[in-house]
Amino acid sequence: MVTNNFNRIARHLMMTHWHVHRAFPREALDAIEEAIKQSEATHDGEICFALEGALHSAALLKGQSARARAIEVFSQLHVWDTEQNNGVLIYLLLADQDVEIVADRGLHARVGSSDWEVICREMEARFRRREYQEGVIAGIQAVAQQMRQHFPARDHWGNELVDKAVVL
């Protein structure tokens, strides 16, 4: 347990902006933005992708999980603030290669945690192969499939959340 904590702390402390930009160059971020735009044309939900290289030292020393951080980011980016309560955050903590999906109550009531978990684990498998752009786009497509099922394109409220990938 102590070794795992030490290894995690070391990964986070060694994660630099260079590592983040190497995994997600400008072209990849642009492709992710385009994937979100295209998916949102097919459903009435809102998808937000946020990428964070590493946790700040205080959060790291407290042992903050990627899930807890994803919930904070969900709130900070106002993903919960959509007309139909159907915003979804796909959050990647790169140092841990941990993906978390946080869905607003309107969608979470219709899609179970196990469905989101499957999408997260599939994305993480792609990341282990260093297929970062492909993994995120596949995740967006999988989330969009759930959105189409539960919030098909009908009365689109306009773009309520930024489509651009958020790098924290």
From TrEMBL:
It comes from the Bacteria. Pfam families: TPM_phosphatase (PF04536). Residues 27-145 form the TPM domain. Transmembrane segments: none annotated. InterPro entries: TPM_dom. Signal peptide: none annotated. Gene3D superfamilies: 3.10.310.50. PANTHER family: BLL7265 PROTEIN (PTHR30373:SF8), UPF0603 PROTEIN YGCG (PTHR30373). This is TPM domain-containing protein. It comes from Cupriavidus pinatubonensis.
